[in-house]
Design brief:
Number of strands of chain A: 19
Strand content of chain B: 25-35%
Strand content of chain A: 5-15%
Shape of chain A: elongated
Mean pLDDT of chain B: 80
Helix content of chain A: 40-55%
Mean pLDDT of chain A: 83
Strand order of the largest sheet of chain A: 9-12-6-2-17-16
Low-confidence stretches of chain B: 1-6, 127-135, 209-226
Distance between the termini of chain A: 46 Å
Low-confidence stretches of chain A: 544-553
Structural class of chain B: alpha/beta
Number of strands of chain B: 16
Order of helices and strands of chain B: HEHHEEEEEEEEHEHEEHEEHEE
Largest sheet of chain A: 6 strands, antiparallel
Largest interface: A-B, 59 and 46 residues
Largest sheet of chain B: 6 strands, mixed
Number of helices of chain B: 7
Helix content of chain B: 25-40%
Structural class of chain A: alpha+beta
Number of helices of chain A: 23
Oligomer: heterodimer
């Protein structure tokens, strides 16, 4: 039993360490050596001699690490949690390698639990849930076994051997702890802003292309794919028909200096596209990652409204972009219009000379051949819309898409792309279209965002990765607003939308788990809590017509509640049947056994230990004794004398049994 | 040495206190105290930080406390205890009390049960129980009681003082499952533990013709059967008489024990008179033990020694039953710091006075005990 207890202790420490690693990774230097020591401690225990030899070493190392942690706290240099975790791990290793007889259980539990608390600060992944459950089961068993060991030693008794059914029962009892934990998590009111969380770990590679200035002139070898997830998008009202072909608009740029795009802040727009285009509303709930330096909110064009779901404040810029103020990963709800002007409507529109229109005709110094090309594309088009389509068609059909970057700065220019290289990535295509349109007198701007994504069947949402980053063009049609056009060749568009290779089913599953974990656990807040309460209360409250509820809110809980109620009813009926089977048939036998049970509860010997007449003889004078004797006599007469009770006699017997029970209870 | 005042067991206040008496008591052990404080601190930290995983961990601590409360309750439920006491034990002798513990639960076993004798009756609210109050700290341990099973457990006991100790009941204590909290439940189980005084003191035999000219009759030292004189008649049996002298036919006829009387010319016969007044408790207790040792040695020699101790009066006897009765009386005597010398209603010349304050008068012999004579 002691060996089992010791191993459980080492296992507990190992589980806590894994939980920490699932969030903080291998940041703490002591993690790997501690894992090796704890793993060894599960299987091997050093003898008393080695333990006593190691003891001074543990103490010296603990003192040094404590001094280091204190220094870190005092100076404020760096993360103070990591040195403390190092100290915790050292103490845990020492504890696990000591000869443990149950006396240090409280200390061991406190150390491992402190490690769990530390790991909570690092936003661990869904693996934490599994490790936490395993931790609770192991801790329950270890603490129970340790307690029995201690009590046996205290009373000079022999500890009972660790029978497997007993251990399994104890392990099963840990579900009570888990259920309480879940209930506290779910129902405890959320009042805080969560300032102590360390937030999501930063993206491994910062996202470029969404800053105030986006440069075209990158050169080098090749744009490397990066499958890191940028955002996950749910469609509470149902996904559009082709979700992997959607353009997720981020930032727009109206000024091009020949090398880089930027945005003039004084250019004002009206942004009435959602109102003008109409159509049904597409609702999108976006769970994005902070991009680092660029606080951009993405949505389907045209965006009508953005509501924050996390601690951010959305700001609509003059150019119609949505940025935000706040920390952490943004979560928000976007409502966009699904309608789009038809080609006929667009053909009716003519260029105008408003300040907004003219501001989007700005051009850098361009070569005469580029102007000639722009003229040639314009002259063949009868309307502004046909002109735009002609430029778009020219680029999609005459040029190739490649992620290979121009080798030199000189070859990274727009002119070189259009007239020499005739291949490039999406920014070249969008820039070329915008410049050719502006040279032809059509107001346009460059837009950066994401294209498509991977539809996750497991979680029913769209996963957008860095590979989906894309550029396209918006053209201003007076009276109708900004309309998007994508000059990148369709084959390349399909590649971008697919995310360069796609996610495997396993990664899809993992991503779904990560998303649910973040949404329902790490970012569980007052809003989500109230929606959960609404769902729980939904079977009892009438549904609000036309309310903007999420998919989860509409998914009723009553089937689960009904199943639980049915299960409880079945268990109750089974219990009653079993109890009825245990009671012998006949009112006399039932009355007799009820009386015996009542006396048994009061301290009399059980029915199996004393025959009926001996029981009756042993009864002392107390209220109900005569009634009890009467019941016993009737039972003996029926059971052994073959007498049959009439209906009146049975009723009187039941009444006597009731009086006897009342008497003995009093 | 003075008898404690009996607790008041009537009145409205008493009834209210009986009504409000909790069915269980809960004590925090040290790890439990740390756990409660830790849970409280973690709760504050959780509310302040809003870290959702801390809510999960806080729930785990609360769940541990809840599970601890539930399982300890289950361990205490459905337990029936029977106690088996020895007839009497001598102070200073190691002995055992046996408990038969039965778990009446059909499915759940009980683990880590400690049985502890209650220190006061259930309905006694006169004093708060304290650690030092218990004259007899008796406890036994049942590591495991399977569902529906019975176990016999023993409590080792080495009473230091003589006395008649009422046992009010058994307190079931468990710290199962984690050793964080101790939950207690009282079971009323009346009984009496009689602790006789020690009888192994080295005492001299009473002197024939003691310092005051005792008239203790010297014996021949022959066997008891041979010491009986002529048959004299029948009389009622008194405690301390030799059961072998019971006349069974007369007993059967009259329905009560009747004894044959003989002339006992060959046997020493005297009374041990214990002076219950002692200037100090130590010397008084020593006098009680000397009296007990005198009775035991008289029994061993075959002398017929009686006892007078306050109101208790055991006739001179030679049988073991008589010695037991005398030791029972000595176990129950109460000493007092002041008072007159004893005045037995027998001839003082046939009495051996055992006293802690010095004696005078026409005693057959006087043994003065000063402090601890051992």
């Amino acid at each position: 039993m002691m060996e089992l207890h010791r191993r459980l202790g080492a296992l507990l420490a190992l589980l806590a360490l894994m939980a920490f690693v699932s969030g903080a990774g291998l940041e703490a230097p002591a993690v790997v050596p501690a894992a090796l020591v704890l793993l060894a401690a599960v299987f091997v225990q050093p003898g008393e001699r080695w333990s006593s030899r190691l003891e001074p070493a543990w103490r010296i190392a603990a003192l040094l690490l404590a001094a280091r942690a204190a220094l870190r706290v005092v100076t404020g240099a760096g993360d103070p949690v990591l040195p403390m975790v190092d100290l915790l791990l050292l103490l845990l290793c020492a504890e696990s390698l000591r000869s443990r007889d149950g006396s240090g259980d409280a200390r061991h539990f406190a150390l491992t639990f402190a490690l769990l608390i530390a790991s909570a600060a690092y936003r661990p992944g869904p693996l934490f849930a599994l490790l936490f459950a395993a931790y609770v089961v192991s801790a329950t068993v270890m603490l129970v076994v340790g307690h029995l060991l201690r009590e046996a030693r205290r009373h000079n008794a022999e500890a009972p051997p660790p029978a497997r059914p007993f251990l399994l029962r104890v392990a099963a009892l840990s579900t009570v702890v888990l259920a309480t934990s879940f209930a506290v998590f779910l129902f405890f009111p959320r009042v805080s802003e969560g300032w102590a969380s360390r937030g999501a770990p930063a993206m491994s590679r910062a996202m470029v292309g969404f800053g105030d200035r986006v440069s075209l002139g990158q050169h080098g070898t090749r744009i490397e794919p990066n499958p890191e997830v940028v955002m996950r998008i749910e469609f509470p009202g149902g996904a559009p028909g082709h979700p992997t072909g959607l353009h997720w608009r981020g930032r727009s740029y109206n000024q091009f200096d020949g090398v880089a795009w930027s945005s003039r802040p004084d250019v004002r727009g009206r942004h009435r596209e959602a109102e003008l285009w109409g159509g049904p509303v597409i609702e999108q709930v976006v769970y994005a990652r902070a991009l680092g330096g660029a606080n951009v909110l993405f949505g389907l064009h045209p965006v009508a409204q953005v509501d924050p779901l996390s601690r951010i404040r959305p700001v609509r810029m003059r150019n119609g972009d949505f940025l935000y103020v706040g920390d952490g990963d943004p979560a928000y709800r976007v409502r966009s219009a699904a309608g789009r002007p038809t080609a006929e409507q667009l053909r009716q529109v003519e260029p105008e000379h408003t300040p907004e229109y003219l501001a989007h005709l700005q051009l850098p110094a361009v070569t005469p051949r580029l102007l000639r090309l722009a003229d040639s594309l314009r002259t063949s088009a009868p309307t502004m819309y046909d002109h735009v389509r002609a430029v778009e068609r020219y680029l999609t059909t005459q040029f190739d898409y490649t992620l290979d970057l121009p080798p030199t700065r000189r070859e990274a220019t727009l002119d070189h792309f259009i007239f020499v290289r005739r291949a490039g990535h999406c920014e070249y295509f969008s820039t070329a279209m915008a410049v050719l349109l502006r040279a032809g007198g059509v107001a346009s701007r460059n837009v950066n965002g994401f294209l498509g994504g991977e539809w996750n069947d497991f979680g029913q949402y769209l996963t957008v990765t860095q590979n989906n980053a894309h550029s396209w063009v918006e053209v201003f049609f007076p009276g109708l607003g900004w309309v998007a056009f994508d000059p990148t060749p369709p084959a390349a568009v399909a590649t971008i939308a697919g995310g360069a290779g796609g996610l495997s089913r396993w990664r899809m599953f993992r991503d779904g788990m990560d998303h649910r974990w973040s949404r329902w656990v790490l970012d569980y807040d007052v809003g989500v809590q109230s929606s959960v309460f609404q769902r729980l209360a939904s079977p009892f409250t009438p549904s609000s017509p036309g309310g903007a509820e999420s998919v989860e809110a509409r998914r009723p809980l009553w089937p689960a509640a009904a199943a639980a109620a049915l299960l409880l009813m079945v268990l109750f009926v089974a219990h009653r049947i079993r109890r009825a089977r245990r009671l012998p048939a006949g009112p006399a036998a039932r009355a007799y056994l009820e009386v015996r049970r009542a006396y048994e509860r009061a301290g009399f010997p059980p029915a199996t230990a004393q025959p009926p007449l001996a029981f009756a003889a042993a009864l002392q004078s107390m209220p109900g004794t005569e009634d009890a004797r009467q019941v016993v006599a009737a039972y003996v007469a029926v059971r052994f004398g073959g007498r049959e009770l009439g209906a009146g006699e049975a009723a009187r017997l039941q009444e006597a049994a009731r009086r006897a029970r009342t008497g003995v209870r009093a | 040495m003075a008898a404690a005042a009996a607790p008041r067991r009537s009145g409205l206040l008493y009834r209210i206190r009986v009504f409000l008496r909790p069915p269980r008591r809960l004590r925090l052990r040290r790890p439990g105290g740390f756990l409660v404080v830790g849970t409280f601190v973690l709760g504050i930290a959780t509310l302040n930080t809003g870290n959702n995983l801390l809510y999960l961990l806080l729930g785990a601590l609360l769940g541990t406390i809840a599970l601890s409360g539930w399982l300890s309750e289950q361990a205490l439920r459905g337990i029936r205890v029977q106690r088996r006491l020895p007839r009497a034990v001598h102070a200073g002798d190691a002995t055992r009390i046996e408990y038969q513990v039965h778990n009446r639960k059909e499915r759940l076993p009980s683990h880590g049960l400690v049985l502890r004798e209650m220190r006061q009756p259930l309905d006694d609210f006169s004093t708060r129980p304290r650690q030092g109050d218990a004259p007899l700290p008796i406890q036994a341990f049942a590591p495991v009681l399977e569902a529906g099973g019975t176990a016999r457990v023993r409590a080792d006991l080495e009473p230091r003082r003589r006395g008649v100790f009422p046992l009010h009941g058994v307190t079931l204590v468990t710290a199962f499952p984690f050793g964080l909290f101790e939950k207690e439940r009282d079971l009323e189980l009346p009984g009496t533990l009689v602790v006789w005084p020690r009888t192994d003191r080295r005492v001299r035999p009473p002197r024939a013709g003691g310092r005051s000219g005792a008239r203790i009759r010297a014996g021949s030292g022959a066997a008891q059967g041979a010491e009986r004189g002529d048959y004299r008649g029948l009389r009622e049996y008194r405690p301390g008489d030799d059961p072998r002298d019971i006349h069974w036919r007369s007993t059967a006829r009259r329905g009560q024990p009747i004894l044959r009387q003989y002339d006992r010319q060959a046997t020493n016969e005297y009374w041990i008179v214990l002076d219950l007044v002692a200037p100090a408790e130590e010397s008084g207790e020593a006098a009680v033990e000397v009296a007990a040792s005198l009775l035991a040695s008289a029994h061993a020699r075959g002398d017929r020694a009686g006892l007078v101790a306050g109101d208790a009066r055991i006739m001179p006897h030679t049988g073991g039953g008589g010695l037991d009765a005398a030791l029972d009386a000595l176990a129950a005597v109460t000493l007092s710091p002041a008072g007159p010398l004893p005045d037995p209603a027998v001839d003082r010349g046939s009495c051996v006075l055992v006293t802690a304050r010095g004696g005078g008068g026409e005693w057959g012999d006087v043994i003065v005990v000063e402090g601890d004579p051992a």
